[in-house]
Design a protein that fits this description.
This protein has about 575 residues and is of the alpha+beta class. The chain contains 16 helices and 26 strands. The N and C termini lie far apart (about 60 Å). It holds the Pfam family Peptidase_S15.
Amino acid sequence: MADFTTWDAGGETINIRKDLRVPMRDGVELAADAYHGAEDKPRPALVALSPYGKELQAFALTMPPQRRPSPLWDGCIEAGDIARVVQEDYVHVIGDLRGSGGSGGEMIGNYNAGGVSLGQDAYDFIEWVAEQSWCDGNVGMIGISYFGSMQVLAAAERPPHLKAIFVSGGHFDFYETTYHGGIMWFMPRAAREGRGGDSGIAHTNVKSRMQEMYSREELQKLVEARLEDPDVAAWPNLVHVLRYPTNREFWFDIVLNHLDGEWYEERNPITLAPNIDIPVYLQIDQGRGWTVDGTIELFNVLKGPKRLDIGPYPPMQSRPFVEEHDTMFRWYDYWLKGIDNGVLDEPEVTVSVEGSRERVTGSQWPPKEVEYRSLYLRPRRKLSPEPELMGAEYAAPDGFYQVPLTVTDKVEILSWSTEPFEENTELIGTGAAHLFAEIDQDDTNFILRLWDTAPDGNRQLITTGYLKASHRELDERTTEGNPYHPHTRTVPVEPGTIEEYVLRLYPFANTFKPGHRLTVELSNDEPLADAHNALLPPDAFHLPVGRPVTHKIYRDAAHPSRLVLPFTTRNAAEKK
């Protein structure tokens, strides 16, 4: 039996139905809380589902929104502003996924890949909510990150009463969320283990999918094979996870599955998205390039009414999460309440352009016409629109020697810069970096970061690119300035040979103002602390290379190392 309590939110009464039990089709019950106004009437409902714990989300009633580096900032208070939802005359329903919080059942693997589909649970949850006396049968969803991904999984199941979704800051292609260019990212560890300031999953009964699929003997062989990677073997946390996996279920699965393929694709929300036929609003901020990439990919496969809004840098939002609510309620007022507020007359794509701080609109991504132009790496750390004419004997390669971070704290970085721009120069889209490089090992990381550098030396990160050298193969989707890597196998590098490596630069939008320079930095590890990483949790870095590597970057007439970037055309600018 659910408890019924009230809360005084600044003079407005909120009725709270605590610990509701929501039955799933297999008999498991999920726990939920429902918040709504004092007047006893049916209302549209906004559902929030995650494994992060409904009790944690209740902090939104008592904690003012805070940005990093507040010590009270918590990455998983992400279900939205409860008081605002109630004030807008919706029911806010916050539920715990199976195997977490107050819910029953077990969760197997991320998104329950291999177990009961969380999309299936979301279907049952939404249809139960729609039948309650306090709901008028119109249901939407709310919440960022994992909550956002759950919206897509739910919509793909087509529950009849789910009328629209509004997804902010979701993560979709889970391989791309955990391996950038084949390089492992440590951030997902925070979601599972609560490191980096994030509370983590409120797990009660979660299991490793790999431990469900394989025998102990088979797993031991897979672990030993993974430890043959010197990067993994040199990093204590990963050795610990692989040797003692029992209490690190999801992280263990991620570490063992370092290649893309069926394991990640089975319940990839982007794979399921063509099933979605309801209106979808996608919102993401710049600065977490890989998440922007997945959001755009999702937008492109959706068939129904849709919107894409790429907001300004920085990417990390307040906790409790309160941003984007104005836009969200306009969306839901139209689709759930039938209020004709003009949302259908607004453009499909809106992008905030860094530098100019303008918002440009269009019907697709990128929202303007672009032409790809090259900026070539030249001697004396210059970037130029003109290619190098001299051979390698005169345009000798740049180079750096990186010692493993297990024995040093110094990250070696090469950089190249343009001359100051003479007029506003706008770039919107994806990009590519073609690097002709020679290494003395059979693998390394290439980490590229593009900056907008002001005359006074201040700078802002524009985009990033990552590639593990053994993942350099390209696939048939690759076009000029828009490379793709399959990441389905590794191809070791022959030491001492010059190879062309093509890095995907994640989507971005920036105007370089007169006097500003474009600066590109290359390393095989990344600084553990700088102006950009200060916005992210302390362990939001990539797995360092576990052995010393010498890198030579050729940029001569025979080896045209270059950036290929999306410059908006004058015709496009004139059409604004």
